[in-house]
């Protein structure tokens, strides 16, 4: 197969790479080159996967911000809820936000490493725990509302 | 229906645009969060919160500009994903944004802790 032609199912990166006018000396698929042009590593990533990995990271960051803001808002707005339960719920949401922020970086790093090595993406292990945490924090708030 | 080669190229471009927009959207949201947190925490923690907030906003703006520049460069001068792209290197952006987001969370937790201490 000559360079510049893509077999079915292969995404060319970036979109103008297939142009015959481009110099392809530094864009041989499957290699990472340094500034001098020497091959420094094999890169098995599909560009679509790399971009999707970044978007997943950003979605986790937005989730983290939303959870942190929820926790802070619960405490700042002080709804008619028993104070202790209110603070516990707010703290749980903020902690979940911190965990989501950490997961954003860890998940991006692991996926980036695995896809570079040509391995499959590991399943999301923290998802069920985060869901359970949100449920517990919400139930805590509801209990406080009942006790108030 | 099987996608054509042109469809796949369009998808690749869409993915680049979507990712650039996601970076901008998230960076702006983090900046707004930093400003709100600064406003909320200034009374409790003093003036240094303003400095921290300004530093955070500056980091987020750099991340925003870096991401925009990186994807503009991809668009103008096609190249493969490179491990060395200066400030536009995605791992630096990822670490900066994640670090600042976690820092905002930790400050928020400290604020909730202060509220709890004041309540007792």
TrEMBL record, chain B:
InterPro entries: DUF202
Key word Cytoplasm present: no
Species name: Demequina litorisediminis
Listed transmembrane segments: 48-74, 94-119
One Pfam family of this chain: DUF202
Main location: membrane
Entry keyword Cytoplasm: no
Domain spans labelled DUF202: 19-77
Record key words, sorted: Membrane, Transmembrane, Transmembrane helix
Coiled coil (residue ranges): none
Membrane association type: Multi-pass membrane protein
Subcellular compartments: Endomembrane system
Protein name as catalogued: DUF202 domain-containing protein
């Amino acid at each position: 197969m000559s360079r510049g032609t893509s077999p079915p199912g292969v995404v060319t990166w970036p979109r103008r790479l297939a142009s015959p006018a481009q110099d392809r000396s530094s864009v041989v698929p499957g290699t990472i080159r340094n500034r001098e042009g020497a091959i420094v590593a094999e890169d098995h990533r599909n560009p679509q996967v790399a971009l999707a990995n970044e978007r997943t990271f950003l979605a986790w960051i937005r989730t983290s911000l939303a959870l942190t803001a929820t926790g802070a808002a619960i405490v700042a707005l002080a709804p008619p809820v028993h104070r202790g339960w209110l603070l516990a719920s707010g703290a749980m949401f903020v902690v979940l936000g911190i965990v989501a922020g950490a997961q954003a970086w860890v998940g991006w790093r692991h996926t980036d490493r695995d896809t570079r090595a040509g391995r499959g993406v590991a399943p999301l292990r923290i998802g069920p725990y985060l869901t359970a945490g949100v449920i517990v924090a919400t139930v805590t708030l509801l209990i406080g509302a009942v006790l108030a | 229906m099987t996608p054509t080669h042109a469809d796949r190229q369009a998808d690749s471009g869409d993915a680049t645009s979507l990712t650039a927009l996601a970076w901008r959207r998230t960076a702006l949201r983090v900046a707004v969060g930093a400003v709100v947190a600064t406003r909320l925490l200034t009374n409790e923690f003093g003036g240094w919160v303003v400095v921290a907030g300004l530093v955070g906003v500056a980091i987020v703006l750099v991340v925003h500009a870096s991401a925009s520049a990186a994807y503009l460069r991809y668009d103008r001068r096609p190249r493969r994903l490179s491990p060395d792209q200066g400030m536009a290197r995605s791992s630096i952006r990822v670490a900066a944004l994640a670090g600042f987001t976690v820092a905002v969370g930790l400050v928020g937790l400290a604020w909730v802790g202060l509220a709890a201490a004041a309540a007792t």
